[in-house]
Amino acid sequence: MSEASVGAGEGSQAPEREVATDLFRRGLIISPILLALCLIFWGVNGLACGSIGLGLVLINFLMGAWIIDWAVKISPQFLMVAVLGGFILRMGMLAIVVLPIRNSNWFEIMPFGILLIFSHLGLLIWETRYVSATLAYPGLKPGKPDIRRHGDTN
């Protein structure tokens, strides 16, 4: 890697961290609504389980980006190993959190599972509108469209 390419990237955030941070931010934006629904339909236990599920999703996105950002500095081969190992590590984290509490009286599987699965998918689908798939602007698209303009097709 040349010094020019290293110097050019110092002022900007890595694309994977930028996208993961944006996913985390969007997760925080939508979390009050999702957690309120858990509270309405499943009570306080549902709120607790939904919070655990949503927290795991948001931590999962940040950990994935951190692993990629760390490994890409080493080598492309190590990046592939780190991504696979990171996936296994993050699934292990999920198991470590869920296994001890799954048989507790307060644990509600429905809000936990719904938020775990659908917030992963929903946040990724929501983020696709803002991700740039070009080499010129990796990460998020420059000049995010104004949220108030619903007819914008950018």
Quickly list its features.
single chain; 154 residues; mainly alpha; 4 helices
Structural class: mainly alpha
Biggest sheet, strands in spatial order? 1-2
Low-confidence stretches: 1-11
Beta-strand content: under 5%
Number of folding domains?
Answer: 1
How many whole angstroms does the radius of gyration measure? Answer: 18 Å
Count, helices: 4
Coarse shape:
flat
Largest sheet: 2 strands, antiparallel
Task: Summarize the helices and strands and which ones pair or pack.
Elements: H1 3-8, H2 15-72, H3 76-98, H4 109-128, E1 131-133, E2 138-140
Antiparallel strand pairs: 1-2
Helix pairs in contact: 2-3, 2-4
Walkthrough of the structure:
- The chain is mainly α and about 150 residues long.
- Helix 2 (about 15-70) packs across helix 4.
- A hairpin with a 4-residue loop joins strand 1 (about 130-135) and strand 2.
- It has helices at about 5-10, 15-70, 75-100, 110-130, and strands spanning about 130-135, 140.
- A two-stranded antiparallel ribbon has the order 1-2.
- It has one domain (about 15-130).
- It is about 70% helix and about 5% strand.
- It is flat.
- It has four helices and two strands.
- Mean pLDDT is about 85; it is low at about 1-10.
